[in-house]
Amino acid sequence: MTVSLSPTPRSRSGGVTRYLVLGFVLVVVLLVVVLLSLAVGSRNIAPSEVLSALFTGADSDDATVITSQRLPRTLLGLLVGVALGMAGALMQGHTRNPLADPGLFGVNAGASFGVALSVSLFGGVSSGGLVVAALVGAGAAAVIVFAFGLRDISGSSLMMLAVVGTTLAALLAALTTALVLLDASALDAVRFWNVGTLAQRNYDLVGLLVPLLVVGLLLALYNSISLNALGLGEQVATSLGTRVAASRMVSIVSITLLAGAATAICGPISFLGLVAPHVARAIGGSDYRRIVPFAGLTGAVLLLTADTVGRITVDNGELQVGIVLAVIGAPVLLAITRRRRLVAL
Amino acid sequence: MTASTPPRSWQLRVGPIGLRVRRRLVIGALTAVLVLLGLLALAVFTGTLAMPVDRVVAVLSGGGTRVERLVVIDNRLAPALAALLVGFALGCAGGLTQSITRNPIASPDILGVTSGAGAFAVLLITTPAVAGLVGDNPASSLLTPAAIVGGLLTAGIILALSWRTGFDGVRVVLVGLAVNALALAGTAWMLTRTDLLNAQVAVRWLSGSVNGVKIGDLWLLAGISALALFVCIRLGRDVGALRLGRDVAATVGTVPGRVELVALAVAVILTSASTAVAGPIAFVAFVAPQIAMRLFRTAGPPPLVGGLAGAGVMMIAAQVADRLPGTLPVGVLTPLIGAPYLLFLMRSYVRKTSG
C-alpha cells in the first residue's frame, strides 16, 4: 500500500462507500469486543446471558456482575480507548511525526506529574483538584511539545521533535519518581498509577471526567478536517484557506482534554496513541478525516481487548491493561514497520 | 592518507597506526579527564561522614582501620568508580549507535537494550529454579551474565527486525520503541507474579543505583571499557565517515556493514555490562554524546568524548543523590540532569534554524 499526502482521485470517487463499509466493519469488531469484555472474566458468562441482562433487566447474580461491574468498566474502556487513539492521531497529524504519542511524548507523564506535584504542595486534594492538576500538567506538556514541533517541519526536525518529546516524557517521569520518593503523600496519590488500569477505585473522578472526554472527542473530530491541508505544510494550508493557528490551538485543547482525562482516570497508558493511528492508516489510507475516527475505534478495540485478555491470563487477580497493551501493541507496531514503506507523515 | 593535515589538528603516528586528531577535541578531552579526576577526589575526600584528609590518604595507600576502609573504599570509592565506569560505558555506547544510525534517539537506553537487559535479569531473579541455584547473593553472581545475555538478545531482536539494506533511522527507532515497551511490560508482569522478596531485590536493582557496588563487581566493566576505548580509537575515522551516510563512507574506503556490526556489538556489550553493575540507568547514553557534540563542536555524536561526558553526568548525579535528603537512587537523577540541558540545547537549535 503506497501512501500519498492527498486522497487519489480513485479513492475520492469510491471513497465514501469504502469509508462507510470500513467504518461499519470496525464498529462490528468493536461490538464483538464489547460483548467479550462483558462476558469474560473470573466468572465467565454466556453471551446470551449477557444480552438478556443488558436488555431485559434480568435479576440474577450474573446480571448484577454485568450491570454493576463489567458494564461501567467496559464503557470506561470504550471512552478511554477512543480518547487515546484520537489524541495519538491528532498528535501525529499536527507534528507530522509517525512516532508521536501522548504517552511517548510526555503528555500522560505531565498529567501524572501535575497530580504528584499538587498533592505534594497542597496536601490532600479533592477529586476536582486532582482533575485540574492532571489537565494542567497534560496541557503544559502538550504546549511544550507543540512549541518545539511546529516551528519548521523538515526531515531533521521530525527527529528533533521525537527527541524533545521523549526527553520531556523521561524528565516528567523522573520528576514524579523523585517527588514520590521524597514525599510519602505524593506516593499515595500516584502509586495506583504505576501501570494503567481500567479497574476503578474512584467513580467520582469518572463522573467529572467523562464530560471533558466527550468535549475532547468532538473537538478532535472537528480538528481532523483541517489536518489534510496542514499535512501539505503551513504555507500551503494557509493559501488553501486553513486557519493554521486556530487549528493548532483546537488540537492542543483537544489533546489535553483527551490524554489528561484518560490519564487521570486510568493512569499512564502508553502505546495506544502510537499504534491506533498506524492501524487506522493501514486500514483507511491517508485521509485524516478517516484516520482520526478510525484511530478512535481502533483504540477502543485495542484497549478493551487488552483489558479482557488481562482478566484471563493470570490465575489469581488480573494483569493491568497497560502491560497487556504493550504486549499486544508492540508486535502490531513491529508488523507495521516491517510491512510498509516508512513515510514521513 | 596523502591529504595534508588540516589546520587546528595534530598528526600522531605510532608504528602502523596513524591518527589525525583535532586540537580542540584533545584539549577538551584532557580538560574532561581533569574534571573527572576532580569529581573522583570530591567523592572520595568528602561525604556525609566527616573524615580528615590524611586518614583518607592513609586508607588509599593501604592502611586505616576496618571502619575507615569501609567508609572510604566501600561507601565512597566504589560507588564513584562505578558511576565513572557506567557513565563512560553508556556515553560511549550512545555515541557509537547514534553515529552509525545517524539518529540521536537511536541510543541503547531508548531503543530498549537497557530494558531488555533488565528484563532478562529480572526473569532469572524471579524464576524460582534459577534463584535457588545462586543462594543469597544474586546481585553479583547472577545479574551480570543475565544482563549481558539479555542485552545481546534484545539488540539481536531489534537488528533482525529492522535491518533491510542498512539502518533506516526511523525504522530502527520504531522497532526499538516497540521492543522497549515489550521489555518494560514483561518486567512489570514478572514483578506482579513473583513473591515479595524477589520483587524487592529486583525493584531495588531496577531503580538504578551505584550504592552498594563493590570494587570486585567492577573489573568486568573496566576491562570492557578499556577494550571499547581501543575499538573507538581504531574505528574513529570509519564512524565519522558513516555519519555522512553509507554511500559516502564506502567511497572513502570504509566498509559500512563491518564497521556498523563492530560498533553495535561494542555498544551493546558496554550497555549490558553497565546495566549489570548499576541497573538500567536511563538517559545517559542518550544525552551524553549530544552534550559532548555541542560542548566540543564535533561533527556528530562522538563515542569517546561522549563517554567522558557520560562519566561526568553519572558522577555529578551520584554526588547529588548522595547529598540530597532521602534516598534517591542515581537512576532517578540522571534524567533530571540530562533532560533539561538537552531541551535547552534543542531550543536554541530551533531558534537558529527557524530564524
Describe this structure in words.
The longest helix of chain A has 35 residues, at 61-95. Chain A has a single domain (9-339), classed as ABC transporter involved in vitamin B12 uptake, BtuC, CATH 1.10.3470. Chain A has 14 helices and no strands. The radius of gyration of chain A is 20 Å and the shape is globular. By secondary structure, chain A is mainly α. Chain B has a two-stranded antiparallel ribbon. Helices cover 74% and strands 3% of the residues of chain B. Chain B has 16 helices and 2 strands. With 355 residues, chain B is mostly helical. Chain B has one domain: ABC transporter involved in vitamin B12 uptake, BtuC. The two termini of chain B are 40 Å apart.
User: From N to C, what is the helix and strand string of chain B?
Assistant: EEHHHHHHHHHHHHHHHH
Separation, N- and C-terminal Cα atoms of chain A: 15 Å
Count of helical stretches of chain A: 14
How many runs of DSSP E, i.e. beta strands of chain A?
0
Percentage of residues in helical conformation of chain B: over 70%
Assembly type of the chains comes to: heterodimer
Which shape of chain A, going by the Cα principal axes?
Answer: globular
Radius of gyration of chain A: 20 Å
- Please report which band the strand proportion of chain B falls in: under 5%, 5-15%, 15-25%, 25-35%, 35-45% or over 45%: under 5%
Judged by helices, strands and strand pairing, the structural class of chain A is mainly alpha
SSE string of chain A, helix = H, strand = E?
HHHHHHHHHHHHHH
Largest sheet of chain A: none
Mean pLDDT of chain B: 80
CATH top level of chain A is Mainly Alpha
Q: Could you say what the CATH topology of chain A is called?
A: ABC transporter involved in vitamin B12 uptake, BtuC
